[in-house]
Design a protein that fits this description.
The protein has about 130 residues and is an alpha/beta fold. The protein has a single domain (about 5-129), classed as Rossmann fold, CATH 3.40.50.620. About 45% of the residues lie in helices and about 25% in strands. It has helices at about 15-30, 50-65, 80-90, 105-110, 115-120, and strands spanning about 5-10, 30-40, 70-75, 95-100, 125-129. The longest helix has 17 residues, at about 15-30.
Length: about 130
């Protein structure tokens, strides 16, 4: 059973849809959701770190409103590598991630996060659109 579900969030529509799927599954399995936001290292072209906490707070409120236990993790670093590390260290049963979160330009520069996670994950991954 998928009782420990990790959901990387970045505020994009794709990550919001991933969160909705995670909530449905968590309710069916009486599981819990951990939302993780990783702000790329300062050398990146992405959003500033101060946005990350508000993204996590919004997601946690949505999850808890649905009656599902939720935790959050805010990190700065390498997005794919840190998602994989969190999944391993937390012994998560499943990762649910949006198909795209970055702009087209950033995706070309940084690579696809969902692709990297599916390639390296220590557990099953569901990619939502």
């Amino acid at each position: 059973m998928y009782r420990k579900i990790l959901v990387p969030v970045d505020g994009s529509d794709h990550s919001k849809r991933a969160l909705q799927e995670a909530i449905k599954l968590a309710r069916m399995t009486q599981g819990a959701i951990t939302l993780v936001h990783i702000t790329p290292s300062k050398h990146s072209v992405s959003q500033p770190a101060n946005n990350g906490q508000s993204i996590l707070d919004e997601g946690k409120k949505i999850v808890q409103t649905e009656g599902v236990p939720a935790e959050t993790i805010l990190l700065e670093g390498k997005v794919v590598e840190d998602i994989i590390r969190v999944a391993k260290e937390g012994a998560f049963d499943l990762i649910i991630i949006g198909a795209r979160g970055l702009s087209k330009f950033e995706e070309l520069v940084l690579g696809s996060v969902s692709h990297g996670v599916t390639e390296k994950a220590p557990c099953p991954v569901i990619v939502t659109r």
